[in-house]
Specification:
Helix content is 34%, strand content 22%. It is of the alpha/beta class. It is elongated. The structure holds ligand LLP.
Length: 874
């Protein structure tokens, strides 16, 4: 179909089409908004405005019941009449004058002789009443508000296409498509309408044989698109109750981003695979006629919304992920007729015979697997059983239900595969039944069991952002997160290093790379924990950062210290004079015997995590008190490499062997006074520790001698603006709840990262700025030897040019170090000031935990220096 040439109304600047759905037309203040927007568009652009409306919310459902012959149809009609009368009264209009004739027509449909047999033309007329009523009362109201608003019957303008051969009678009347190209006479008639502003109905059109035809699902969006295409409109705006299309369903992924601008093909794919905000049918008419579309929020018209147009920025990358439930997979194995001409046709003929439309297809030498989308099919058990019986004649049939289809949508999927390794690893835990990549390179779909899909989308969404596969830094395309728009975001406090910038620049002058730690921040985190955590003792896991000043500050705040090696034990006693050994935990893993020996000799609390140690060194443990570390069989954490629970983890005694340990300990007179678990680091799920406490309490009761439960560390911090700050209150509340259930035990935590990550920055000088094949890189005098987290865990750290903190960061750089390893990269495609130059002082944020502590002299590069800031700069 050739695009319609945009036809400009000569007296004005063409047409703009605004569509409002049910919730947008059911309240008076919403009609005020409609009026304001129509007037504003006309004034701003000089265009004439066509408003397309749905029925008041809920009305079409009632009309559907009446059209279906509900036994209480008379009552339903009465209810609808009353609903509209009430609303007209609320609008301050004369009910009889405005709606009298329309309501009489509605009542009249029940008295119509056709009501007895309910032919499809009568049903269409019934269904169309809602829009006729809402548009009529809306036009009348807006006129009383002083608008030059005309009313027109959509059936005078939208013509249903002649019936297709394979169309059912039902869809020929109740799910029609319309003509969307207009001749000069049509334009002349339309433009001749006297008012600048016009209102009409969505959902209805003229049937080729006369009377009403219905557009079917998504009807009003599609009506607006048809009008937009027919008029060659400047724009079609779909006004709804969400701020636009998002990179995922915001109810499932609160971090989903607003998609500010999309091409038609991407938008089509996103709507087809799940987004409900726009009906997929409505895109083609606008696409074919080059009419831009926008999705906007009626309650918040100031938000940018989503624009769909031909010239949308062509940024490759994943734009959205979606999930469809209830998908059925049908797999046919051992197909006897493989490679015979027409064998696939034979298979698909059977799907056709049962009226099933196939969504995705995967074939191999001996297998054909197809997916059936429930939204396109009537998937009753009977239909599936009948299909299976027929398919059995061809091969072995397996029906897999219920499945979920997880789809990644975006341009250039094929060139992204190398960035999707984390995504594939997210699926690694699930059974993937089928992977399908569309030939238009817009869509990659994984089919998994529906139960496995729960909770997967937020994880996938995060992984796509972290890997760079979803390019959220592209401001043209990606807008704010849903939870920001929803007002659920606490603004991130300005980090301490903004205030300390002059001092940091001075410190950098003394030599870089250099870590700087801000003790007031350490104390603030310690106090925040003390204020809420319902625990009896807090220890600091010194492996995160063992700088003596930090250890002393935390001991002064009442924290004990948790150590994992003899080296750490010696270090704490050397750093904190007079430290009481009862305030020290020793939690080694696979340590040599003498470390346990020294631990007991120093008088610290020793934790054991295996039976073999007791058996091998009975004399070491005889008569001692120990804590026992248990692997509760599940783990968590910001990266697979910091997950310390479950079968793949080396830590902790298997829960299956607890009784064995207890027996071995008893035989030695060893008393288990504490139970310990630490199942991962950077855990975002606040319920994680509550579950641990509950599970440990169960073991403690069985053992009988236990008085303390240590639920480890693992509290996360927000490394990037995308991370939700940890909800300390929710965490504390869940601990308080579980404590109340197990009051007999003392509770202990041992966080590391939470206390120190945000107190530390790594300062470095830029050494070189280099362009290579279109990529700009800034090199630092610090590399992965100074901070290994990005190389090891793909960890995110914010990076700024401290020298040019006030300049806009608008150029994209990869930030790299001097080490001879490809993984020596602190961040890819990060925004920095365009003037970033050698000699600038750069700052890597949130490096206080596992920064210097994990540094090395690899490549014979020196360890970074360390400095402490102890009082606030004021
Ligand atoms: N307790 C035990 C027994 C631990 O093994 C750890 C950390 C902690 C407590 C403290 O965990 P935190 O609160 O800091 O999450 N290098 C990794 C983190 C490894 C954590 C090792 N164990 C990173 O940079 O993310």
């Amino acid at each position: 179909m050739s695009p319609a040439s945009p036809k400009q109304d000569s007296a004005t600047g063409g047409w703009i089409v605004l569509k409002f759905g049910g919730t947008s037309v059911s309240r008076r203040h919403r009609w005020d908004t409609i009026g304001r927007l129509a007037k504003k568009r006309a004034e701003e652009t000089g265009a004439r405005v066509l408003v397309v409306v749905s029925a008041l919310s809920g009305v079409t459902n009632e009309l559907t019941a009446i059209a279906d012959g509900a036994s209480d149809s008379a009552q339903r009609v009465q209810g609808l009449v009353q609903r509209h009368l009430d609303f007209v009264a609320e609008l301050g209009l004369d009910a009889e004058a405005v709606l009298g004739a329309r309501l009489a027509a509605l009542r009249g449909l029940l008295d119509d002789p056709r009501a007895a047999t309910r032919p499809l033309d009568w049903q269409a007329e019934v269904l169309g009443q809602g829009e006729l009523l809402s548009s009529t009362l809306g036009a009348a109201y807006l006129r009383t508000q002083g608008l030059d608003m005309g009313w027109t019957d959509a059936r005078d303008w939208l013509d249903a296409l002649p019936p297709q051969a394979n169309q059912s009678d039902w869809s020929r009347r109740l799910s029609v498509s319309c003509q969307w190209q207009a001749d000069a006479a049509w334009h002349a008639r339309f433009d001749a309408q006297p008012t600048r502003l016009l209102i009409t109905q969505g959902f209805i059109a003229r049937h080729p044989e006369g009377g009403t035809a219905i557009l079917g699902r998504g009807g009003s969006d599609t009506s607006a698109a048809y009008f937009g295409a027919l008029l060659g409109a400047n724009r079609v705006e779909i006004w709804t109750d969400v701020p636009g299309m998002f990179s995922a369903n915001p109810r499932e992924v609160p971090d989903a981003r607003l998609l500010k601008r999309l091409g038609y093909a991407e938008a089509q794919e996103i709507t087809t695979t799940g987004a409900k905000v726009l009906h997929p049918r409505s895109i083609k008419p606008c696409r074919d006629s080059g009419v831009p579309m926008a999705i906007l929020d009626t309650e918040r018209p100031e938000l940018p919304g989503t624009t769909i147009d031909r010239s949308a920025a062509t940024v490759p990358g994943v734009k959205a992920i979606s999930r469809r439930n209830g998908v059925v997979l049908v797999s046919v194995e051992d197909i006897g007729m493989w490679q015979q001409v027409g064998y696939l046709a034979e298979v698909f003929a059977l799907f056709r015979k049962h009226g099933l439309s196939v969504d995705m297809i995967g074939t191999s030498q001996t297998n054909v697997t197809v997916s059936l989308d429930p939204s396109e099919n009537l998937l009753s058990e009977n239909v599936l059983a009948a299909l299976a019986t027929d398919l059995e004649k061809i091969g072995r049939v397996k029906v897999i239900v219920p499945c979920a289809a997880i789809t990644l949508v975006g341009r250039g999927m094929r060139s992204l595969l190398h960035k999707l390794s984390e995504v594939f690893s997210s699926f690694g835990h699930e059974r993937v039944h089928m992977i399908s990549q569309s030939s238009n390179d817009l869509n990659l779909t994984f089919v998994i069991d529906e139960a496995d899909a729960d909770g997967l989308l937020p994880e996938l969404h995060g992984a796509l952002i972290d890997s760079g596969a979803m390019p959220v830094l592209e401001k043209e395309v990606f807008g704010p997160r849903w939870r920001e728009l929803d007002g659920a975001v606490r603004p991130r406090p300005v980090p301490w290093w903004h205030r300390e910038r002059p001092r940091l620049l001075q410190m950098a002058a003394a030599g870089t790379p250099r870590y700087v730690y801000h003790l007031p921040t350490v104390r603030a985190r310690a106090r925040a924990l003390k204020a809420v955590a319902p625990v009896d003792q807090r220890y600091y896991a010194i492996k995160a950062n063992s700088h003596p000043a930090i250890l002393r500050a935390l001991v002064d705040e009442g924290f004990g210290l948790e150590c994992v090696s003899l080296g750490e034990l010696r270090h704490v006693f050397a750093s904190v004079p007079g430290l009481d050994p009862r305030r020290v935990l020793f939690t080694p893993s696979f340590a040599p015997m003498h470390e346990y020996e020294q631990g007991f000799a120093l008088g610290v609390t020793v934790t054991v995590d295996n039976v073999e140690a007791l058996r091998r060194w009975p004399e070491l443990f005889r008569g001692r008190q120990v804590w026992l570390r248990i692997d509760l069989g599940h783990g968590d954490g910001h990266h697979q490499k910091v997950n310390t629970g479950g079968k793949d983890s080396k830590f902790g005694l298997s829960a299956q062997r607890v009784d064995e340990f207890v027996d071995a300990a008893r035989a030695l007179g060893t008393t288990i006074t504490g139970l310990h678990a630490h199942l991962g680091s950077g855990v975002e799920n606040a319920g994680h520790w509550r579950q641990m406490c509950d599970e440990l309490a169960g073991f403690a009761r069985r053992i009988g001698t236990v008085s303390t439960l240590d639920i480890g560390g693992g509290l996360p911090i927000p490394y990037s603006a995308d991370d939700e700050p940890f909800d300390l209150d929710a965490w504390a509340a869940s601990l308080a709840e579980v404590r109340a259930v197990h009051p007999a035990f003392g509770l202990v935590i041992e966080p590391g990262r939470y206390l120190v990550a945000e107190c530390g920055v790594l300062l470095a000088h830029a050494t070189q700025v280099i362009e290579k094949d279109g990529v700009l890189r800034v090199g630092l005098d610090a590399g992965m030897n100074a901070l290994v987290r990005p190389a090891l865990y793909d960890a995110w750290h914010d990076i700024v040019n401290l020298q040019r903190l006030d300049e806009a960061a608008e150029a994209m750089f990869d930030i790299v170090g001097p080490i001879c390893e490809s993984s020596d990269i602190f961040g890819r495609q990060r925004p920095l000031p365009a003037a970033t130059a050698p000699g600038d002082v750069m700052l890597i944020a949130d490096a206080g935990a596992y920064g210097h502590a994990m540094a090395s002299t690899y490549n014979q590069r020196e360890l970074p220096a360390e400095d402490v800031i102890d009082e606030s700069a004021g």
